[in-house]
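In response to a reviewer's request, we include the raw inputs and outputs for one of the modeled complexes. The two entities were modeled together in a single run.
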Amino acid sequence: MTQTVRIAAGQGFWGDWLEAPVRQVTGGPVDYLMMDYLAEVTMSIMQKQKSRDPLLGYAKDFVPLMERILPTLAQRGIKVTTNAGGVNPRACAEAVAALARRLGLAGKLTIGVVSGDDLLGRLDDLLARGHGLKNLDTGRPLGDVRDRVQSANAYLGAAPVVEALGRGADIVITGRVTDTGLTLGPMMHAFGWRRDAWDLLAAGTVAGHTIECGAQCTGGNCLVDWERVPDLANVGYPIVEARPDGSFDVTKHPGTGGRVTVAGVTEQLVYEMGDPRAYITPDCVADFTTIQLTQVGKDRVRFAGIKGRSATDKLKVSIAYGYGYKAVGTLVYAWPDAYAKARRADQVLRRRLADLGLEFEAIVTEFVGVDATHGRLASAAGVPVDLPEVQLRVGVRARELAPVERFTREIAPLILNGPPSVTGFAGGRPKPEEIVAYWPALIDKREVQPCVDVVAV
Amino acid sequence: MRGRGRGLREASDGRTVGPSDRKGKVLLLDLAHARSGDKGDTANVGLIARKPEYYAHLVKHVTAARVARHFKGMITGPVERFELPNLRALNFLLHGALDGGGTISLKTDAQGKVFSTALLRMMVEVPR
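The model returned the following structure tokens for the whole complex.
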């Protein structure tokens, strides 16, 4: 049996550092490159792109990235797991295959495609058969927003990734596979872990959670002792060194910046955490209260003792629907009396919106520099009187576009007809933005059949 | 050193521990670090003891009820607390914290990324 497997995280989200995956595959030995691209609302953006062009609907950045690293991957035998496929993993795979042939890698590469997560075309059938797809947060039935649904995807787990690897895939391109499944999959494949080895699956899931946000576990966005995190410009992305017994180390390539410590890794473990005893994935239920962390070397933290329980009989479904519209306008007021001027401008603006009879679901005013991030907690001891500047930031939200559109025309006039010493409007009129909201639901597992295709290039 | 003024003193590990106020309290920031994220309209704050011996102190003093009071008027739902003694951490779920959350929210911090630091403003009893 393989003794250790090195899984490197290359992207923590769609838009993460383009250099990271390149450095991960050239900076030292790794066996797998794991790249997470999907956030909750990403799927709806991709669905829109696909509706305009049937060859789109995936993370387009992935293809030029592969152009940079495919020769290295092939030469070093590094495999890739990624959910860059979005709502069109097949088109993504075909784009990568075409690229591989252009790079002279024909006959040397096998691509696995994981689909079956897309439920958009099946929603009415599912609803008709009594699957309510109720909102997990509000309890409301999907019928409330059915006509505005833009995408619906079940979260698949590691199993189809394992299948694709088992059938010889070098690059596994998936739709909505969980972030953690992309890391757990290679471990199950390499070590032959059983689908009911709950402690081992929980360990792989914790490994996946730790590295799924990229550098957030190696010194990025790290609060503890942040001033002394070395060389963030050159930050190393995380690497899991996994062992068959479920213990693993998190580390990074030598010579890179950042820091891997128990305290920093702990920050990532609690990130987006719910009930720590029940971290539910399609693969298992991991218990984060069993994780034992030890600093076993410089930039190396060992994970051990992780326990898990059997998976549930449900899958989570991520549904995106059109909610309404919003816009945010900002202006900057300068000393003297910067805060007082910004407050006065807000009063004037709100009065004008009311006089126009515009109806909004919400109007939110923040004074950036005073209360935008910590609300009243920041000004509990009083606001300094000599602030050099304050940014007025007003956002509005409505179900209809018209009032939001009208709001965007009420910001600029304040420059000449509101309180003085105002600047910072070079960006022009704010743009109304469609709100695509997230509707989390559950579905019976047996309703969703993952589909795995493996094609030689 | 964070320049919060009055009489900063060095802790045994070289960290600067802030001054206690007249009621014998310190800033939670001096005892813990934190990270936060979101799930819909709920913000989570993971609070981590800076030293192992601070964990029991946090369990005792940073209760769900006290955190709810700290954020009164800023969140619309209840506060839940979970304990992770193995990581010397507490996890708080602040429901109704994000003006609808995600894409709906109009807030700068729509995803609750810095709610963690807002909790660290709390004044808590000095550990013995």
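As requested, we also summarize the result in words. Chain A has two domains: 5-117+155-312, 323-437. DSSP finds twelve helices and 19 strands in chain A.
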